[in-house]
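DM from R.C. (forwarded with permission)

"hey, sorry to bug you on a friday — could you get me a structure for this? deadline for the figure draft is monday and I only need the backbone to look sensible"
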Amino acid sequence: MIPVILSGGSGTRLWPLSRSQYPKQFLPLVSGNSMLQETMLRIQSLPTMQAPIAICNEVHRFLMAKQLYDIEAIPSAIILEPMGKNTAPAVALAALSAESPDDVLLVLAADHVISDTDAFHAAIHHAEALARQGLLVTFGIVPNSPEIGYGYIKQGSALENTAYNVAAFVEKPDLATANQYLQSGEYLWNSGMFAFTAGSFLAELEKFNPEMLECCTQALASAKADLDFIRIDKAIFAKCPSDSIDYAVMEKTDKAAVIPLDAGWNDVGSWSALWDVRDKDNNGNAINGDVITIDTHNSLIHAENKLVTVIGVDDLVVVETKDAVMIASKDGSQSVKDVVGQLIKLSRSEAETHPKVFRPWGSYDSVDSGDRYQTKLIVVNPGAKLSVQQHHHRAEHWIVVKGTAMVSLNDDKTLLFENESIYIPIGTIHCLENPGVIPLEVVEVQSGTYLGEDDIVRYSDQYGRV
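My reply, with the result:
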């Protein structure tokens, strides 16, 4: 089987932790690994599993690559989408990339939690067998509550070994209808996970949405290799219809099958859902960071930088990051996405980035800023190198606080050690690299009339960002 990891979500409901340039699938929300890494680790032990195909927005390409390589899940391809077109085109690109139409694709979201790995593995083995019979298999979650935030799948006639034909896909219901679904025992939550052969999926897509298949075929045929990535043709892909797998294929095909899955699944689609899966203290509080609670119950408190104290409240979500604080009732935490919408309208950076920004060479963290100055902590990975660049509106001072730095200024190179510094005047072509074996840490002080990140001219870059 080939895992197909879909990583196109922006995770707006988990703001301020999740942001568009660093969404929830790349965050360690439940364990020390990111949700993407947990998704891969969950299936790596299966003997029939091949190298994964990962699909993500091009903005997240280096995050995707680094996190997969860190757990030695070396992908066969990382396909970059220039814009989101929902799940059906993404899976079509993966199916077209498979070596054989008989390859079974296991389509997984990058940001789900599954606590019972053994039960999940058993369901995967069952799905593989059904997929090889030409069926398009989805995993339906056995419901334990009348959830109104999920779509449902109605079970049809029985197939072998507790699988069923799909009778119907049902939209998110109201509470009364969800209760009826739960009591009937005929309905399952729609997990958004699938298994089918590449050929079976493409044949059904050609039948029901030939325009989508044609666009994906042409976009992939015109794709270009870029380091470890496959950049599909932007102009062609822009014309592709946008649709989910459910709407494009699964609701129309007569080959849909569903396997009931009871494995502690959670899509962590809100702060209340994250509270469900996190460990809790004796008062039902899920706590992360430097937190003191008094007379507080059934709440989620997440502190990253400061001491957070919570007194005399129940069913609350409190999240503190370096640049934002979010407080919400646990029941109302689904509305966090509306806050993100307002931030976007106001062109606030807090909707997109954290103060700590990750780059392919390492990261930088904003420490302080004023009218004509800005201070950052730059961390450069061993052997990594920033682009050769120039600024028209700012000068920079670099002070090495850890490691060794190789600094290029125009045609001159200087090796700097800890506690040494250098000045980069406005207009100077310069570069910073780490020739050492430990991370390089540099305090950068910028000064000038304009300090935006777009004041940069790249002359060369080993990560293809020129």
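R.C.: lifesaver. The CA atoms of residues 323 and 405 lie 29 Å apart.
me: no worries. The chain has three domains: 2-266, 279-338, 356-460.
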